[in-house]
Amino acid sequence: MFDLIKYKNVFIGFSLILVIAAVAAMAVFGFRLGIDFTGGTLWQFRFNGDSVTVPALEDFFKASAGLENISLNTDSDQKLFLLRTNEMKEADHQRISDLLKSRFPGMEELRFESIGPTVGDELRRKAVLAFVLVLVGISLYIAFAFRKVSEPVSSWKYGLITLVTLFHDALIPAGLYAVLSHWQGVEIDTNFIVALLVIMGFSVHDTIVVFDRIRENLRVQKNKKLPEIINMSVNQTFARSINTSLTLILVLLALYFLGSATLQYFVLIILIGTVIGTYSSIFVASPLLTFFTKE
């Protein structure tokens, strides 16, 4: 039987290093906010036929379309383009689209979003509120679900540990996103918030499985101390946790390498979060219980 508690300081120390690195990355690099939070226009299109260069499109948008503040990205084949600019009215969108099609035949519009700054600010506030409410709600639910457990760890401590691990699981992918934001120009949008919420949902599910087994073993193994119970419970649920996570990881890998390029970073964050969440459920959440008891 694997002795998890014997190496708990190593596992928790490793997590602490990752969290510190993530916080440092966010403090140093910060985030590039997408149009969801700042307002603006996101326009995705492609060309079927002759390849079109970025300089040619930039010259068109500035000279012919009258757009000044633009950011234009393309894929390796220069077929798919993503334009970011200031908020654009529908009339301007139609006018520029007609000009673009006449200048570059074979143009096909894939996506167009235009959000005002007021809406973007409201989305940002609601995204932060949703994140906080999910953290608090899950922690309160865990404390309520384990309300009949009082010895040797009180139910509210299960909720507190769940809150700590959820922060852990969200901070590390967020730190990675800050690095990508700095070096790759990746912007955070509502998909980023959704990815963090998905990560927390999956992580807490895995944590509850382990905690529930600990609770059951505490009832039937009253002659054993808490560290022994934790080791036993983790070993009993280890294979289930790994197998469940592995099936999701395989799907996410397929989506990352074979899926749409527009969802690549969204899938990457969930992939990293799934790995971190599985690790924290087994190697962080359970050992933290021992810090709340004298056994």
UniProtKB/TrEMBL annotation:
GO terms for biological process: intracellular protein transmembrane transport; protein targeting; protein transport by the Sec complex. InterPro entries: SecD/SecF_arch_bac, SecD/SecF_bac, SecD/SecF_CS, SecD_SecF_C, SecF_bac, SSD. It is a multi-pass membrane protein. The keyword Membrane applies. It is found in: Cell membrane. It comes from the Bacteria. Coiled coil: none annotated. Pfam families: Sec_GG (PF07549), SecD_SecF_C (PF02355). One of its GO terms (molecular function) is protein-transporting ATPase activity. Residues 127-291 form the SSD domain. Keywords: Cell inner membrane, Cell membrane, Membrane, Protein transport, Translocation, Transmembrane, Transmembrane helix, Transport. The chain crosses the membrane at residues 12-35, 127-146, 158-180, 192-211, 242-259, 265-292. One of its GO terms (cellular component) is plasma membrane. The keyword DNA-binding does not apply. Part of the Sec protein translocase complex. Interacts with the SecYEG preprotein conducting channel. SecDF uses the proton motive force (PMF) to complete protein translocation after the ATP-dependent function of SecA. Belongs to the SecD/SecF family. SecF subfamily. Forms a complex with SecD. Part of the essential Sec protein translocation apparatus which comprises SecA, SecYEG and auxiliary proteins SecDF. Other proteins may also be involved. This is Protein-export membrane protein SecF. It comes from Candidatus Harrisonbacteria bacterium RIFCSPLOWO2_02_FULL_45_10c. The lineage of its organism: Bacteria, Candidatus Harrisoniibacteriota.
